Amino acid sequence: MPNSIDVVVIGAGLSGLTAARLLRASGRSVLVLEARDRPGGRMYGFDVDGRSIQIGGRWIGPGQDRVKSLAEEFGIEAIEHDGFEDAGSVIGGAGEELRALARRIEALAESVPLEAPWTTPNARELDGQTLATWLSANAPADVATAMGTSLTSFLPEPQDLSFLHTLFYTKSNGGLVGILGLDGKAHDNGQFVGGAHRLTDALYHDLEAHVRLNTPVWKIVHDRDQVQVHTADGRVSAGYAIVAMPPVLAGRLQYDPPMPPDRDYLTQRMPIRGKIAVALLYAEPFWRDGSDTTLVADEDVLLWDEGGDHRPVVLAGLISIRRSRELAGLDAATRKETILGYAARHFGNQATQLSDYYEINWAAEPWSRGCNSFMTTGVWTAWGYSLRQPVGRIHWAGAETSPYFVGQMEGAVQSAETVVETLLTAG
Q1: What does DSSP assign to residue 60?
Q2: DSSP letter string over 179-207?
Q3: Tens digit of pLDDT for each residue in 293-345?
Q4: Is the pTM here over 0.70, yes or no?
Q5: Domains of the chain (ranges plus CATH)?
Q6: Exposure check for the chain: N or C terminus, fewer CB within 10 A?
Q7: Could you tell me if 415 and 399 are in contact, meaning their C-beta atoms sit under 8 angstroms apart?
Q8: Residues near 335 by Cβ (< 8 Å), separated by ≥ 6?
Q9: Which long-range contacts (CB under 8 A, 24 or more apart) does 340-345 make?
């Protein structure tokens, strides 16, 4: 490893790789250190018989122009999935009451300053209750249940989630009606041709000489002049460090001197939750016969047709957080049988006659530990300011740190742009 560089980036996900590329384009020397044996972080996919299989982050939508422009630079096309026009109908049951509740939450979210949610009017009151508490006090039981179930496609379970964070997420991502497809269409229904992992693969190959895979970082020593990043293979000295990891994992690194107390308290209280993602491969799309249904959901599973005419065809799925925890304790064969049972519930016994099966339990991935980070009650108002605030020469990046499109690929790119601009301004 080089002894001294301008910036060391920890994490070769979308945000870390984008930051490294921008720094290189500005003439800075960069080294990216990645614990995994692959780039991409939570964007993960591969090819099977010429068919792209995605079991990581993939969706893009309106307003997410930075990530689309970045993909275009590598010749990666974004297309809309054409089978989700009726996405809002999968929630079921509550109809107009659910839309009215979503609009009410949107109206409350308008008061949240995305750059500083802790300054929201009545912030402590909003942050002091969970989403579940607010729903139970403000909606009929069936509507509250439907809303909570719907939101777990994007957020953790309502009883774990600060209501202020719910409002922040709502405004950051363009509104709850659109997020949930309650206006009769799915908003985040775009994908990159060949899979989102093509984008991080392209960034990696563009930077390959400046990326080290299989290189977990365990310690960062920092002072007013430099940082020293320690790995099993040695150490790297740099002018600055960008830590592009989920906050809870960033908090597990050793720092010398230690992080300020408020930053430490934040990372201890900003957990991440993970689901089991699956790809079910079939010789033929039997579920398309005489049906327009391409997206189904219940309290256990969300399943959708990946579309296209290429064989094999794919039903992709996400298992609920609660069921994922239960299934994680089963042996692989029993877990697969149970998940196929969920598919059969919606598509009949033919769903159990598949040609191949892939799964990943994101909660069990050691360098992710989940999919979506979030704020528990009281965190935004007590320590939220430290989420994006640099600590000396250590800066933070990632989809969680962006005020806009938080948790999305767009947010990861915006976060990278922001931190690079800050570093370049600092010199």
Answers
A1: B
A2: HTTTTSS-SS-EEETT-THHHHHHHHHHH
A3: 577 888 899 999 988 888 899 999 999 999 999 999 999 999 999 999 999 99
A4: yes
A5: 4-45+55-78+194-259+391-426 (3.50.50.60), 87-179 (1.10.405.10), 275-364 (3.90.660.10)
A6: C
A7: yes
A8: 276, 327, 328, 359
A9: 340/280, 342/298, 342/300, 342/301, 342/303, 342/317, 343/280, 343/301, 343/303, 343/315, 343/317, 345/298
